[in-house]
Write a structure and sequence with these properties.
The complex is a heterodimer. By secondary structure, chain A is α/β, with parallel strands linked by helices. Chain A has 21 helices and 17 strands. Chain B has a single domain, classed as ACP-like (Non-ribosomal Peptide Synthetase Peptidyl Carrier Protein, Chain A). The chains are: A alpha/beta, B mainly alpha.
Chain lengths: ~550, ~80
Amino acid sequence: MTAITTIDKLDWQATLFAPELNRLAVMRLGVPTPTGAVLRVVRNHAFETLAPILAPLLSFAGYPMAPVLGEYDDSVNLPDDAYAAALVWLDFTRYGRLSDEELAQWFLGRLDALRAHAGGPLVVANSPDVGDRAARINAALQDWASRTPAAAILRLDKIAQDLGPRAFAEDRAAVTGTRYADPLNLEAARTLAFEVLAPACAAPIKALAVDLDNTLYAGVLGEDGPDGVRLTEGHARLQREIARLAGLGVLVSIVSKNEAADVQALFAAREDFPLRPDQVASWQVSWGEKSDGVRAAAAQFNIAPDSFLLIDDNVGELFQVSSRHPGLRLLHAGGEAEATVRALRRYPGLPQEGQSFAGRAADLAANAERAALADAAVDEEAYLAALQAELTFALNPVEDRGRLTELSRKTNQFNVSLRRLDEVEVDRYLTAPDRCVVHVKLADRLADSGSVAALFGRREDSAFVVEELCISCRALGRKLEDIMIVEAVRAGMDRLGASRAAFDYQLGPRNQPALEWLATFLGRPVTGEAGRLNVPEDRVAETPRGAVSIRWTHD
Amino acid sequence: MTERVDAEIAEILSLTLGRPVAAGDDLKRGDEAKWDSLKHLEIIFAVEGAYGVSFSPDEIAAVTGASDLKAKVLAANAA
């Protein structure tokens, strides 16, 4: 099977982000069902016709999985085989003999058993029906998901509400094996792939690289001038969507082949543009290659180019940048701006409702001032004093499980062992008696960076073994690594009664900064692909807090 | 219209059954091992999505081949 490329996905964009999925159009993409990772479907009614639609959606999203269907089973038995993720797909009207309370109690018990049975995302499709009984089971499911690691709800009720009477085909249930009509099934597949599984499975998009001419507005700035380019309703919506994402902490860069002075004049003149200059964190405007512009923005943001989504109307430019930066995601802005907005709103990897990368842009803006402080300070102590950094530590904060998982999954540069823990694994560190987690938040006088680091450790004989250690790139460069890590290691040793410490490490494509820190900290080279290194006792004897304020909120 | 419907129904059958089907071929469900009950529903749903038609339960069961699909589409367009 030929590997699916970023360029292939450009061809799929219009079909997969259409206002309503069309089965024939999806079939025409010819995307084979992937082999390897399995999405196990536990169900009591038909799912077969969703399976071929899921393959291209999951492949586009970057986490291809093959749906494997169990037999129809009202009793929700535990699957025997291994799987990467599970979907529970039940028609709740089949449980007419149970009262609302009995149904909720029994079903949540089965879900807890499924959760305990295997790790990975566990998605439950809720009831699309209207009425008190459906509302009660859906409320119980929502509550269960909010307190269960790696659990999520596929909101069929919301999809059914949008579709109205087209959601159901009750009269055909005897023939099709389900009361759900095809439009409900198609949208359920898309929502599952692009929205429900994305927070657990998608590589995060941390930044946008946005073209200008015929992307952010209609027209060519160099030809039409600042007053001549047109802000259509679709382009206004696109700008508002980009501004909304900027508000959620997605870093926005303008990457455009234009005269820098013209672009400055454009944004000064066009007060009707919803995207304002202060929402753009990097301006890469020149006649050079756009791949160089993306590289420069990535360097400025201290992230890798594959964390970008490039939005451009020019397929040639998309190809050029993609060839230089493998893994970078692409959004073609050709055609109606409204179509670009639709794709951007659902693009897997961007923060969704309730998620936020807040603080990142403010941190970035403060970096120049931090650098000036470092230049002006006579030594490290003076720099930290001027920075007025405050580190807040929490031991085993169960309520931070989601963010701790994000740190493990999304941190690339300062990630010592690259274990990429999922929520279930994080939960084990939070709750098992031989494990613990330290969560670190950071603020300084320039910005509140929020959650920036996590250390996951386990007791093994007399050692506290740091099995996962991640520091967000936002917190790097402030000379705080030693303080954060030593304080966290000492707390872990204390909690688990260990007399010494060790670090697990693994070499990855981008975690050189973490391994360089480890080598410096231990005073010895870190060699080989992976291993475990003991920490000299004196390195963790005392936290080198200097002028940094430290406080603990848990335990 | 007829030629386009022939071509698109052949395409739907080809994509669903995973083998070439020529436009105008009256492929029969009974002659095609891969055309099982699940593929049958995929074919019906694809035709419904492509042409905005709706098959009743009896019509779903009564479809025995490409010609029945075509007849349904043409009848709906004539109405």
